[in-house]
What does this fold into?
Amino acid sequence: MGSIQVENLTKRFGALTAVDAVHMRIEEGEVLCLLGPSGCGKTTTLRMIAGLEQESEGDIFIGGKQVNHLSPSDRDIAMVFQFYALYPTLTVGQNIGFPLRSSALSKEKIASRIDEVAKSLQLQEVLNRTPGQLGEGEKQRVAVARAVIRDPNCFLFDEPLSRLDVTLRQTMRGEIKEILNGLSKATVIVTHDQLEALTMADRIAVMRNGAIEQIATPHEIFTRPANLFVAGFIGTPAMNLIPGTLKSLSEGQGNIDLCGQHVSLTVGQEISRLSQDTSVTVGIRPRAFKLVSEPTEGSLAVVVDLIEPMGAETLIHAMVEDMEIRIVLEREQQVSVGEKLNVVSRADQVLIFDNEERLVTS
Ligand code: ATP
It folds into this structure.
């Protein structure tokens, strides 16, 4: 039973509420990413779970046991930091085995555990080197190995990949995910990198100003963001959030005034709870647009302002009145600056947010 549960977890630094009444439960075998902009309270939340920061209010349970009063070493957790702090004069093998130095295990048993863990992290070849003789990816794996060897109840990672270059990050994301899958422990990973969260997490908790805005699977967060903040924060390029007014509804079609244009969009039934002339925000991802040759009821007329080639795709910045929207097209679809385009959004890919910034759901 290695779940992590926090209830009403709150941290105040003087007048600042860094973490504000957070509730969440991470099941054994589950990876939860805490994601959000700098200063939103991710690290403070993690540090309170670890016992490195005293909570102002709230309860923390690990494996069903309340741990608020326990010291970090008595919480049976392993933490991997952004700065992995390996011992520079010890070999990789000694670094990995370090947490077992005062255990009751025999020397032989410790050596075989080191071998076993080194093998699972592909570090057998470098066991006799010192950290100074390793690449960044290897150092990161040693830090993970050192956490894994203790076989703790759960894992906490603080920005584990932020020091790696882009290519290495990509590889390590997959590797760490695979390792965690094999360990079946509750794991919390703090990151400000949404790609890291989307690829590594079973669920993501998106934080802002100390509070959780949404906690859900990566798919749910991406396709059904609970509010405008999550919608704008997740996805690259960012979702277009276009202010409009709902004029009327008929059979799944919403007639909406968008930046001075009257557009008919396919919307979900849930929008029927909104009344006529309500202010809404229409969320459309840049990849959800397609070009049409002639204006239609559902099309939006835009003028190309800037073109950014992105390899196989092109990012178009286009203007609708004085509002800029982002459209991603296949590279083959050539357009030029100043050109007038008609775009429609793919059915089922239009999200409507109400005037309180919440996704309109049934
Ligand atoms: P980052 O991604 O930049 O690390 P974060 O989301 O992890 O940000 P925290 O480090 O948890 O955010 O900080 C949350 C807020 O609490 C910030 O405003 C920060 O300045 C403040 N804070 C954190 N630690 C302390 C402290 N020891 N004393 C006072 N304020 C603090």
